[in-house]
Amino acid sequence: MSTAAKTRSRAVKAPKVTDQPLFIDGKFVDSASDRTFPATNPATGEAICQVAEADATDVNLAVQAARQALEKGPWKTMDAADRGRLLYKLADLVEKNAEELAVLEALNSGKIITDARGDLQGVVNTFRYYAGWADKIEGRTVPVRGNFLSYTLRQPVGVVGQIIPWNFPLLMLAWKWGPALACGNTVVMKLAEQTPITGMRLAELALEAGFPAGVINVLNGYGETTGAAIVAHPGVDKIAFTGHYETAKVIQKAAADTLKRVTFELGGKSPNVVFADADLDQAVQGAFHAIYFHGGQCCTAGSRLFVEEPARKEFVQRLAEKTKERRLGDPLDESTQQGPQVSQEQMDKILGYVQMGQKQGARLVAGGKRHGDKGYFVEPTIFDGVKDDMAIARDEIFGPVVSVLPFKSVDDVIERANNTHYGLAAAVWTKDIDKAHCFAREVRAGTVWVNCYHVVDTTTPFGGFKMSGQGRENGEAALDHYTEVKTVTVKLS
Ligand code: ADP
User: For 56-93, what is each residue's pLDDT tens digit?
Assistant: First the structure.
């Protein structure tokens, strides 16, 4: 099916990576237990380095440092504009070191180097965007009844626990640090256990940028231990989490004990709807990108591909043709178009869904197998003749597997697009402005794309309806989740 990248010399060299410490209170330290775990290269399955594993003791130290920095350190009294300057400085340092960071990201996450470079630009954009916000977070004066002056202050929520996944390690870090720091919070972040390296390098750059000790703390470890300890800690005021909705349920329950604020960015099973009147060249290209970008390891992946019946057959054929040309291989080779899935576990899960799809009667049109015998590669896969209630049409597979679902009318497709507990993203391809806007209004999703896909910018709110999330990241909307509103009322004589 898909072709292997020809053997060629790499344009980019894999660096030697040293063992990774934790970053607590402005210092790089070993974990209290001295325990470590390996970081793996998913293109080969080989270990890259060892990583310090934080437990509740390390979490406690990080939270204490963050609390101290919030309440006593220079961060508390710093001018808002100066917080912005630190974020600008960090953006400049990321830009200066972008190639090194992109290579590390590709090495550890399996993301292809060209995508990793794109992510790094997103990181820089995010830090600059929120740097600009730092001194524009304003309260209001309120026309209260009586002879009083009432005004509001917007103050930091406090110590924020941030727990991120492995699919966009640095970009997710930036989406969380940017608004949190612009609003004056302090941060205890846990990186994903699959991708523990690049966030630690960013901690180093934050130190170089001049963030005071304790403002940013970065930990590594597993979800059920390190992550759970952050969620349970009474010194943490808010949890910002990106990951699976089942994990979010556990976090929400655990956070209830201390009534922490929570924001969640969870998964999706996004409907990508192609009407027969669409520009089919664009739509085929768009549907291909929608599902196969980053090997389908995106919460917004266009995994339910609804195609209007008259166009379906040709559409599927053209999509299948394109999968044959896809070059899978070394993420550090610039000609590679698709890297490995992040782990053996993910690869096995995806291949399990492929089997289930066949068993439940869907027609496998392309792909469906592991690619090669080293690393965790999965061929770009297409199922046609998928029914709405099949597992491959309902569950988030998080891999390069698309389900093609035929439809007959606007109303039919809107109802079926909404028949999911997810609501992260949706797209529609049509030349009919009326259909496009009706779909955009009616679909229950946090982001809707018209004649495009995966266009996500730091300036626009991003998040989910239903079980795809709570709250919004990016844009001005994120600031609401990182500030508390305080009302001050003054009696006037
Ligand atoms: P994914 O399927 O993307 O790995 P997860 O929700 O399992 O999604 O993981 C996302 C992040 O949540 C990771 O950093 C992981 O370690 C963390 N995590 C997993 N379980 C928990 C938990 N019980 N409490 C806190 N964090 C967790």
Answer: 999 999 999 999 999 998 999 999 999 999 999 999 99
Cα distances (Å, whole numbers) of residue 484 to 158, 216, 233, 296: 9, 20, 20, 37
Query: Do strands 425-429 and 377-378 pair parallel, antiparallel, or not at all (unpaired)?
Result: unpaired
Contact indicator for 104, 169 with CB cutoff of 8 Å: no
Strands (E) located in 81-211:
141-142, 148-156, 159-163, 186-190
The first and second tokens of residue 334, run together, are 């610039």
Atom number, ligand 1, closest to the C-alpha of residue 193: 16
Q: Say what the pLDDT of residue 14 is.
A: 82
Give the HSE-up count for residue 176: Cα atoms under 13 Å, Cβ half-sphere.
33
The finding on whether 345 has its CB within 6 A of some atom of ligand 1 is no
The pair phi, psi for residue 303, each rounded to 5°, is -90, -20
**Closest C-alpha among 384, 381, 389 to residue 362:** 384
Ligand 1 centroid to residue 77 C-alpha, Å:
34
Q: Tokens representing 402? A: 């698309």
Q: Alpha-carbon distance 444 to 395, whole Å?
A: 17
- Segments in 155-217 forming alpha helices (H): 169-182, 198-209
Query: Distance between CA 264 and CA 247 in Å, rounded?
Result: 10
- Contact assessment for residue 235 and residue 207, using Cβ atoms and an 8 Å cutoff: no
Cα separation values, 76 from 73, 116, 304, Å? 6, 34, 47
pTM of the model: 0.97
- Residue 2 is classified by DSSP as P
- Give the closest residue (by CA) to ligand 1 atom 17: 223
**pLDDT digits over 291-336, tens only?**
999 999 999 999 999 999 999 999 999 999 999 999 999 999 999 9
C-beta separation of 466 from 140 below 8 A: no
Tokens coding 382:
């297409």
d(CA 201, CA 180): 19
By DSSP bridging, strand 425-429 and strand 401-407 are unpaired
Evaluate the CA torsion angle 66, 68, 73, 75 in order and state its sign.
positive
45: left (phi over 0), alpha (psi -120 to 50) or beta: left
Q: Which of 105, 193, 265, 308 is catalytic?
A: 265
CA nearest ligand 1 atom 24, residue: 228
Question: What is the CA(249)–ligand 1 centre distance, in A?
Answer: 11
Question: Is-contact 350 344, C-beta < 8 A?
Answer: no
Q: Is 386 helix (H, G, I), strand (E, B) or coil?
A: coil
Q: Do 167 and 298 form a contact (C-beta atoms < 8 A)?
A: yes
Using CA atoms of 105, 473, 263, 303 in order, give the dihedral in degrees to the nearest 10. Answer: -70
Count of CB atoms situated within 10 Å of the CB of 325: 10
Tokens for 53, please give them. 């594993």
